[in-house]
Amino acid sequence: MSKTKVRMGMVGGAQGAFIGAIHRIAARLDGLIELVAGSFSSDPTRSQATAAMLGINPTRCYDSYQQMFIEEAKLPADQRIDFVAIVTPNHLHFPIAKLAIESGFHVLSDKPATLNLQEALLLEQTLQSSDCLYGLTHTYTGYPMIKEARHRIAQGELGAIRKVVVEYSQGWLSSSEDEQAKQAKWRLDPQQAGISCCIADIGVHAANLAEYVSNLEITALCADLNQVVPGRPLDDDGTVLLRFNTGCKGVLMASQVALGEENNLNIRIYGDKASIEWSQMEPNSLWLKSHNAPTTLLRAGVALKSQAAQGALRAPAGHPEGYLEAFANIYVNFAKQIEAKKAGSLASNADYDVPGIKEAIRGMAFIENAVEASSLDTKWHSFKIGLVNYE
């Protein structure tokens, strides 16, 4: 085991779990992180089988996350895990993250951050009384061309932002038969998923992307969430009108019953000088459009203005990079953040472009505000975080 690598422990992600495997691939892509321990399942036999598959020392495979934190904390500082990756259903995110932080371990969590907003606010309090880092895998902020779009907007190339349109459409929950899949069962269970399925699963990604790229914050919304397939306890489709802190408007569409769609996330932002358009189905391309000039196709690795975009690329222009690489950009930035923390050179968490507790809280607030707004007849609702009204 290399002493120079950042050591990772994982909770969840046993054999057959889609997102756990994605996290592991992303973590090891740049060679800065080593998975050395885990509690991969509540079933100890399944957890041990996963550890064996991954080549992890069986003594570092634990029957519970509580046991992992206790035993890892006993190890010398140069052997114990540095951070914990949380890849469980939503209802476990908060207790695992809280105990990890209290045990002295940094946390990188899958989204949404917690089961509800109150837990996210409590997690913020836990972080404030610790010296630990917290990151959230809002994967789509890791794409190079998303970082380029954010940079160009921040530099004023689009002028004053007038409208934001973001859409995330999937079709994998189009019928009642789809509910039998393991990934569907917990997402449609309020006890494990929380108060929302579609908006909590993919709508929160779209909201985060809209704020990240535009450099704006949602201050009010009008929501219409639906259970398209009869009998479902949680939403599988939704449309949310948005109002941002500058007064500009937007619309967010999210659906998991859009038959034929795969993972169709796209964003369009319109300013008074120009507009941009990006789609995850063609992630190396960013369209820049204006009123009196030719439309420009910007390509990853070619004449990019943003250092963040250039730094997020691993291959020369023309070599496709996608979801795994975007995911890995979150991991590599978090690893560098931890290294800077160890070295005493961490000036600001913002320098590492890792979604953190602020994004966690805003994401949970978006979910709760959207669900509440959809249940009421009033058109517009202020975006609230706890008792704070942001309009």
UniProtKB/TrEMBL annotation:
Q: What InterPro entries does the entry give? A: Gfo/Idh/MocA-like_OxRdtase_N, Gfo/Idh/MocA_oxidoreduct, GFO_IDH_MocA-like_dom, NAD(P)-bd_dom_sf
Q: Which UniProt keywords apply?
A: Signal
The GFO/IDH/MocA-like oxidoreductase domain, residue ranges: 147-277
Keyword check for Signal: yes
- UniProt superkingdom: Bacteria
Q: Where is the Gfo/Idh/MocA-like oxidoreductase N-terminal domain?
A: 7-136
Family annotation (PANTHER family): CONSERVED EXPRESSED OXIDOREDUCTASE (EUROFUNG), OXIDOREDUCTASE
What is the name attached to this protein's record?
Gfo/Idh/MocA family oxidoreductase
Q: Which species?
A: Pseudoalteromonas prydzensis
